């Protein structure tokens, strides 16, 4: 795997994208404009690493983290959740749940909390470990019992356990939350999460000077319509690079597991068609983030994270971070709620939302050099649109049936087929 700054573009996108911004990025508060990476959320990138490991010896309790919790710790330590300097205490938690803002007034999409089952941890220094690694020491300043019904309704828009994250909140997360200052013991992401995971500071250091940074996130393998959208985005946002930033932590049942997704991203870069059209204006990095499937609120959370990684623009697709009922398969959020939420807060965050109509395959005789065109243009011209649903795609993967090359890259398909049923969460 090449280092972050090397030319190994990676492109994928779930959803729709229509380009806004071809101008400079201007700070809403100061009026100053620039064309490079913007300031982190809150004005400064948080770094919670301690100078030495003596903090670990002072710990009076030890907690082995889940993968979801470990992702949160890694992002907190390295500034991904700036301006947070630890897990939220109750004042911040209550404010974010009720108003989507920290007690300081800073916008924040979702609570960042550490759930525990032991109320007696208050006042202790907690050593946080994950798979044998000492990640951090948490000063347990507060421990409280949250109102999870209120949290679910506010964060996810529902209290129904047909929403997978609401079901997890009620059934699996600890009864109490603990908040306080974190002291990092393991710098960077790669020691825990592997090669290709880069911190906000590492990403910012590798971004080319004077370029606008268009970030987007994905939790799925990359197919050709996704690639098409990013090729367009890079051309349409003037003087830009694309920061490809997939979340590779826990996600919802039915999704493809993180290691397999990473394999598909790696083999994608070997595809001749990919190399031909990708160009040199892409940067990529993996993100140790646990998806919440919280729709509009999670779109804000993603914007804030990517702002901390240096983004000036953020792609929000159709039903971003959405999910369906586990019983009826009905969507919990409207198709464009996440886009609307992102645009509502775009000026405050100083991150512009980028959106496009969907790109569809109509053949090279009707579309561009790769056979794609915007769906609105295809419909206006009465062109036949080639379609393959996600359900049909998975069916063909399992049965060995042909998957057309206009839909997916052959090497990506091979990785998924070789993985079999066990790759699905």
From TrEMBL:
Residues 1-21 form the signal peptide. Residues 198-418 form the Sulphate adenylyltransferase catalytic domain. This is sulfate adenylyltransferase. Gene3D superfamilies: HUPs, Sulfate adenylyltransferase. GO terms for molecular function: nucleotidyltransferase activity. InterPro entries: ATP-Sase_PUA-like_dom, PUA-like_sf, Rossmann-like_a/b/a_fold, Sulfurylase_cat_dom, Sulphate_adenylyltransferase. Residues 39-184 form the ATP-sulfurylase PUA-like domain. Pathway: Sulfur metabolism; hydrogen sulfide biosynthesis; sulfite from sulfate: step 1/3. Belongs to the sulfate adenylyltransferase family. Keywords: ATP-binding, Nucleotide-binding, Nucleotidyltransferase, Signal, Transferase. Its EC number is 2.7.7.4.
